Amino acid sequence: MSRGLIPSSVLPPLTTPVNKDDLAKLEKFSSETEFKDYLSKAPVIGYGRGFGGALAVPSFGTTEKSVPQAADNASQATVDRYSDTNVQVKGIDEPDIVKTDGREIYVSSPNFYSGEPRPLMGSQGISLPVPADERVAIPPRLTSGGVRAVKAWPVQNLKVDGTIGKSGDLLLSGNKLVVLSQQAPDRKIYVYDVSNPASPTEKWNYEIKDNNEIIASRLYQGKLYLVIRTQVNMATPCPVRPLAMGETAIVIPCTEIYHPVTVVPADATYTAMAINVDSGKIEKNTTFVGSTGQSVVYMSEKAIYISYYYPGDYVAYFSDFLKENSDLLPAEISQRLAKLSGYDISPAAKMTELTQVLSNYESSLDNDARLKLQNEMQNRLTEYGKKHSRDLGKTGIVKVAVNGLGIAASGTVPGQSLNQFSLDEFENNLRIATTIGQSFWGFGFGGGQSESANDVYVLDANLNVVGNIQDLGLTERIYSARFIGKLGYLVTFRQTDPFYVLDLSNPRAPKMTGELKIPGFSSYLHPLRDNQILGVGQENGKVKLSLFDVSNPSAPLELAKYNLDDYWSEVSSNHHAYQQDAKHQIFFIPGGKGGYIFSYQGNNLRLVKAVATAQARRAVYINDYLYVVSDTGITVLDETAWNTVKELSF
């Protein structure tokens, strides 16, 4: 057998050498020709986990806003407080499908079908049984999409004030409503004046050009911050045109695009920009190359961090492996492969040559020798992978200053981050949690998989690594992370749920101080109050809530847990679905069967109200009323008695 020993399912990704120092250095292309040359040496990779944000300022519960103590008239009650979207960085808003200013609730929904399943009926409307050829299905109700402006206060006047015929995630800046519409064919950024919610007026819009998508957005101090990913056109990679206002495109020339000094897999560019919400003017922007996979975006008050993952150089990895295992192959084969990593050819060509050399040698062996070599290679590769698991996967990080949007620093760490909560900025240091050693490889004589582990790295303002904690949760991977001030919390999972407490008070000597092993796992961690963390995840295939006491970092406790008779909650994958009212010590989570309101008084978790409404999505509070928003309407609950006081159907 020759190449048949290398099934495509185990061939490693085609990658380029990644040098730690060079990956941390960025410079601009000098021309389109240089960009094309870069791409010719940089194969594409195409898998990843998406984008998001991360915590930079501890925020216990969700934030709320106060309203001046003045009623519009004698018959209208005063709004004293109302909720914001659950975000990581206090003061930096994130887009979601529901927003409120304390008087209006703006609800965005796409077109969808809803309603109870209908029985099959005969052609004359006769209930089954009827002949099969006469049976027709009655379709469920079609609910039109768009944005609804709902008059939410006073409660008794609950009604739909006005509508906008666009849908998408929302941001609210004063009386300006941003609608991020990314569903074809209407892929635009709209801004509406909602001073009169009954009659919104469009102020400006940008078209999202073909091969572009918004992967992260934030609202901060009246500016809309966007990170836009552009799929690279290999024939004409630049200039980049992410947006257009009318017939005028935003053009980013080749000479304004940054790239790592080391050639890395690149099939996209990333553009960070700031837009004035009132005027629509793009004030600043910066662009650099990267990959469409394994990236996370995080914004603090000072910087936007954009990360990108690269699997590493498998040819160099195998060459180094042979240096430690020189008895496996004849000297001439090892020498030939050692020279291969230095050839000025594409990574794809190197991998082809590597597999061909190995396959030719393998074909020259008799069956006994071939079987022995396959087993030896398998075992030694696995052992080598345990010692060198951090050699294969790197995450590059670009730091873009909020003030001016210039590139402030760049750096690298081993491994790959899970999601937005894996990154955090505190006292000018960046903390990042990564999983390493998830790579599987095959080199012709068998394959191997390095043992997974989980690390936390602390980087200074210049993104140099100054401290780390390594080898948490061996053979497991990160399911959730949260950084709060000088402490960090990490959940890994394989069979049990290790909950780790990390002491990050000394950036140069971080350490793991406490560990708790419990069944199931938490995929979202939220600080309920001082020294208490809520975990939302699963156990035995159903939603599990855990209340952790971290008052003693060396001995965390699970104070309480609650297992819902529901199979899924959006909170596990989208923190915006979570809502907390610290005044009443309750929180809301949506589930597959309805919405759930829990009390966390008395160091316990108690289900105080369940709202059996189809497609419950979000909850907001205004004064002491909780508005549960579903795809089909709004249910208003009195937070003092938990009775339903008003309902609205869409």
TrEMBL record:
Question: What protein am I looking at?
Answer: Beta propeller domain-containing protein
Pfam families, A to Z: Beta_propel
